[in-house]
Amino acid sequence: MAALPHTDDLRKLFSKLIDGSHILHFHQVVDAYGHLSFRYPLDPDIFVMSRNVAPAQVSEIRDLVAYRVGDAEPLEAESPPGFAERRIHSEVYKRHPQVNAVVHSHTEAVVPYTISGVPLRAVSHMCGFLGANGLPVFDTADHMENSDVDDLLVRSENMGAHLAKHFDDGNNVTLMRGHGFTVVASSIELAVMRAVYTQKNASIQTTALMLQGVTGVTGGVKSLSQDECMASDKTTQWSLMRPWNLWVQEIECNKVYKKML
Fold it and tell me: What pLDDT score was predicted for residue 236?
């Protein structure tokens, strides 16, 4: 990371990136796979994420890599190997200048909503950011080019660009068929919170659907209205630091996670 000046503000972002990676693992939003990134505040054409390592194992500055938004290549030629799917991050940052943090997850609670045709929508007051109309589902099969690998991963500029379009019109979360989901936000803290609560919302909605199936209740699961989504999202953002500070304390007390800055 010698390419970026290690100012106090940047070190705070490095610390948040490490904490966020650990929090996502602690809440089982990621396991050995998945990743978190942030946009470099002094140059919007640069973003930072960890090297190709499990999120729980990110622990120090040398685990982090700075990339160019334009081509998702590292600023430094001698950087450690990166994630195959860093185009998820670069193409979102390229298309959406208001986005400053991205999370990609494969959590099993959400994947059924990427393949079943059942829309995932906000059903809890903590999840208004999901919206009332059901999340869009990105499918790599719809965008294959000859050079793309047919493994459902977002490896290329082509795939990343098509995924990034799904965040138009203020959408915060996009499902990915047979794969997982991607979350965008204005900060690391908000991106992590949205990822955690996307998983929680999926679990709540699945439980409600199962209850209806077992009991024979009809009429569908009642979700939030659009007005409720907007109002609850504002309230959740207002209280953002309460869960963040709790989650940081939880990982600091857990010997699995190490941070050496």
Answer: 97
**Residue type, position 187, single letter:** S
Contacts of 62 (CB under 8 A, 6+ apart): 1, 80
Check whether 5 has a pLDDT greater than 90: no
Going by pLDDT thresholds of 50, 70 and 90, the confidence category of residue 4 is confident
Q: Are 24 and 36 in contact (CB under 8 A)?
A: yes
Q: Is the pLDDT of residue 151 over 90?
A: yes
DSSP 176: E
In whole angstroms, what is the distance from residue 222 CA to residue 244 CA? 29
**CA 5 – CA 2 distance, rounded (Å):** 7
CA-CA distance, 26 to 59, in Å (whole number)?
A: 14
Q: Is 8 helix (H, G, I), strand (E, B) or coil?
A: helix
Given the residues 76, 85, 145, 252, select the one marked as catalytic.
85
Mean pLDDT value across the chain: 97
Place of tokens 């939030």: 224
Q: Which residue has the tokens 């989901």?
A: 181
- Please name each of the domains of the chain with its CATH number: 8-249 (3.40.225.10)
Token pair of 76 as six digits? 């430094």
Q: Looking at residues 77-102, what average pLDDT do you find?
A: 98
Active site residue 85: yes
Q: Can you tell me whether residue 231 is helix, strand or coil?
A: helix
- Cα separation of 35 and 23, whole Å? 12
